[in-house]
TrEMBL record:
Biased composition (Low complexity): 416-429
SUPFAM superfamilies in the record: P-loop containing nucleoside triphosphate hydrolases
Residue span(s) of domain ChlI/MoxR AAA lid: 366-415
InterPro entries per UniProt: CbbQ/NirQ/NorQ/GpvN, ChlI/MoxR_AAA_lid, P-loop_NTPase
Annotated protein name in UniProt: ChlI/MoxR AAA lid domain-containing protein
Superkingdom, taxonomy of origin: Bacteria
Region (Disordered) location: 410-429
Organism annotation: Actinokineospora soli
Amino acid sequence: MDGYQHVSRAPTLPGGAHHPVADEFDVAALYEGPYGDARGGDAPLDEKLRQAYFWIVNHAIISPHYDIEFHDGPSAGVTLGDSKARLVLPSGQSYSSFVLIPLLTFAVRRRCLLVGGPGRGKTASAVLMGVLAGYPLTEIRRAMQHGHPQLTIADLLGTPLPADLVRAERLSDIDIAWRRWLSMRVKIIDEYNRIPTRTQSALLTLMSDGYAEVFDQVYEAADAAWYLTANDDAGGGTYQVIDALKDRIDVVVQALPFNSRFLGELVTRVEQRLKPEELVPREIVFSEAEHERMWAEILRVPLPAAVRRRLEFFTAQFELLEGAGEQFEYRTKDTARLAGVDPHLLAAAETGRDRVADLGAQTLGGVSVRALQSILAYAKALAYFRDRPEVGLDDLRAVLPFVLHDKLAADDRSPRSSSPPTVPTGPTG
């Protein structure tokens, strides 16, 4: 059990502790040194976030994967198996998306969908985020909303007081017993695709606009990191998820498989009856003030003009459809959709473009403003987590697959989709 209380110190590559200059003077800054508060306080918040990541990877979720890759030079590679699959080992410190993306969601208070089969650790990951926010484990479990076909708006948000229902002459006279989870900084919706459509609409208002409404009474909910889980993201479940609710989700991350090489860790848990969520070290728990300050520090991470220009150029490729209108402003796929015209008919009339290489020919729509804001928030959070002085192109590249996962719909009729797959080349054995 003692090993579970160990918190890694300075686990990231050495390099500078780059912290953006605050917009306003804070007297606490007079006491800060390179390793935290000179009065004996905790480590800087970005270091604390890194310590939380490594503790979860090593002791809780156990995810020894490095699918968020970074390279600091030439990378070693090897060809494996009869399929000649190429395994490239990242030369820079890399991370597991199943742990890092939910952790960044916690830092920036956005909305994360965890998908994967039962027993993959989706709910456990979300519960850990609640523990990091400082909530007791019993409170987190009671506040978790479980999707099921009978879930009503009252079950989700709150119920009117019975005495008020009897005495009230107007709706404004009815007080609502609001659910405790509405005020929490971490909100968990388990199996959200089992929630009835009408209740999904109430959840949509809460997620997008930050308030709940019952019997004309309004509750302003606290800003929070949202975690929703589902066994898949292809519309499966008891109820079809409404498009507007899916659009409010900022990132989608897949639960990665357990590596059986670490089975010994599970043996220890079973024999000693250990539950990692009950053993989270105090050193990696964030108070409400720390949570607020970390978000403010992330927002101040600079986005260089060169990186922003690359993002502008990349996202501009997806919306263009030249045949949709005469004015340049209306030459978009959305114009064709609103006019009820098949974009493929308009695209077929275009000449002089390589439709196999053209990014815009591979999708049915463009990138929304909401998705762009999510990209910026997560890119800043990743640069902050990696202790970088500004957002780099590698930070941007790393977050794009998770933000755009459900935001760009692939065009199955595009020339790229119908072209034969590329045959990998490599040494033969």
